[in-house]
Amino acid sequence: MLTIVYATAFYAVSLLLIFALGRRIWLYATTPAPLKIPTTPAPLTKGGVALRMLREVTVFQSLFRANKWIWLFGWIFHVSLAVVLLRHLRYFLQPVPLPIVLIQPFGVIAGFAMVAGLLALWARRFVVERIRYISGPSDHLILALLVSIGLSGLTMKFLARTDIVSVKEFFLGLMYFDWRPLPADPALIVHLTLVLVLMVVFPFSKLLHAPGVFFSPSRNQADDTRERRYVGSAKLESTPRRA
Amino acid sequence: MAEASSDFDPKEKVHGDPIELPHIQCGAMAGTMPFKAAPGHMQPLGFPGELVEDWHDKAIARLGELLDGNKALRVYLDSCVKCGACTDKCHYFLGTSDPKNMPVARQDLLRKVYRRHFTFAGKYFPSLVGAEDLTKEVLDDWYSYFHQCSECRRCSVFCPYGIDTAEITMAGRDILDTIGVGSKYTNEIIGKVFTVGNNLGLPPKALKATLEGLEEELEEETGLPIKLPLDVKGADILLVTPSADFFASPHMEGLMGYAKVFHEAGVSWTLSTHAAEAANFGMFIGSTENMQKISLRIRDAAKDLGVKRLVFGECGHAWRVAYSFLDTLAGPFDFLDPNYPIPQHIVEFTYDMIQRGKLRFDKSKNDAFRLTFHDSCNVARASRMGDEPGGQFELPRAVLRAVCNYYFDMAPETIRDQTFCCGGGGGLLSDDIMDVRVKGAMPRMRALKDVAEENGVTHMAAICAICKAQFSKVLPQYGFDREAIVSVHQMVSNAIILTGSVQAKELEESGHE
Ligand code: SF4
Ligand code: SF4
User: Model pTM?
Assistant: First the structure.
């Protein structure tokens, strides 16, 4: 029963995530940007823009200039999350590729760092007056969700070890349409349920910043209006000009 | 004219760290807003004369249109994570302490309505995600706080996703105009551009008389027949400059500076009555239609006069529209000479002449000026000069250094791309919101105070008509001299030694002694 419920849920939620997120990304990609609005100084070429974007998504360049504390906590959280996600690949790949094997110990450290980063970010929402003012219920709930996912994951690793071999079989089974039983372990069930919630919430929440950053005109446009004519929307272009 | 509210004493506030954090004071600036436009100011721009009956539905429909037509708006409304990085970056927040002047909070005024009507979460769980209906109160907040943003983009520099509150403010003002609520100041001015040709409503005759007066002044000063040509067909260069340059100090001194540089460069140039305005308030109100209409006047003037080059005078947002938007709005400009930048900034022109050794200066003529430079937002964060990124910071400084002996920069966190707005940009240069303007100028005034005390700086140069007009008003309130604000080309004008001029002869004589 448990297996059927969770197997179905994972299929359904994955489909929802793919479609809802896909639609959002499609909208971002196809909505016209009528005018060139890069925040200058901006790179003059597409290659330069790619580098700017790379700096934004890897070292959070703008955030670094803005506020060192938010940068520190936010960066720790995101990097740890990335390592944790990579570590989790071992539950979905057979055989496990060598790099994923090698990062396993870091994955555990990252698990703690991720939760720590999140808690620090969360504390700011209470302690710093300005950030308290702009924080709404959903901002707290998302942090609660992420912290819970992290803690339930760490619980499985350190407090109530789960039958990880069966878990892997369950997920491989999902991927190859050859269902295997899911262990009825409380920590695991909590962890997976929260992950399902996160997947549902993703395309309808501020987590859209993840795809959004790549479509931000102030960051992804080159500063080249004098070198290349920019036509951003049919409407502006079709206004008659004197010949 | 509303003065800054009583608990805000500029002369006291001028001391302190420009980026000092205030404690938030909810509602500190609620209800502060510019006068609303009369029907006669709205209709010529294609807006309803007054608040329409079905304003709610019309506003939501307009928001939908904007979302479909502007990637920035769509991405920005979704992407904010409420990280707070922008919260202390807005000069209006630093000056007023009103939390709704924090960039993210300003965005949220629009975002909450967007969420309510355009997102799943906001439709079904409004209180969870801070979604709200568009009520009369929200509308009032929009009008008030979207007119306490100068669209300066300082916040967008620091946001991890580049969220530009200026785009949100423009969208907000566009929606307001669409339902019949507009700002008198901006909309009346746009109307004047359509009827008379410039923001000041200066008719061609008066313009001609002004230019002739300036020519006389120039001749008196230099002994040379320096011209300020108007509507000269077949001239090489069309100079488009803010109409303030024809009207008041220190703008006019800048215009005379351009004229001297052109004279010395030996180029043929002209102004145009049809395009006697570089400013484009269509941008401020977020109306691409009006912005395009105004821009097309420049194309028409260039065509009619048969010029080969387009040069813009000192004006911040005008340079943004010219540099970043003009070609898109009114191009292609394939009839101009491709060997020159299209368009070119007057600072680029002068800088180029200096580089090529074509201009001679006597820096000591500016020894009464210990200068600093105010980077104007739209030049700094929305355009470029020269061939390299950041040229917009280097070129004006290079020009100033070439013409004066004493130059000092203000604190690094208040200049270049982190520059603080003068407080009067984005269509806020209106006396009915003097309170907002004075408070918004605080960070800049503090930075100026610092260099005044530390380096004995006496004057601040700017390349924007709005900055100059704003500073002329607020400098005295902060205890500075009203004339402490100068044009970059005013400094050029002071120091330039034109070939064959009185100054050249004087210099030679003193050299021979
Ligand atoms: S910096 Fe950007 S993401 Fe952070 S709160 Fe401000 S607008 Fe939102
Ligand atoms: S654009 Fe400038 S004025 Fe507007 S919110 Fe951002 S920092 Fe403030």
Answer: 0.96
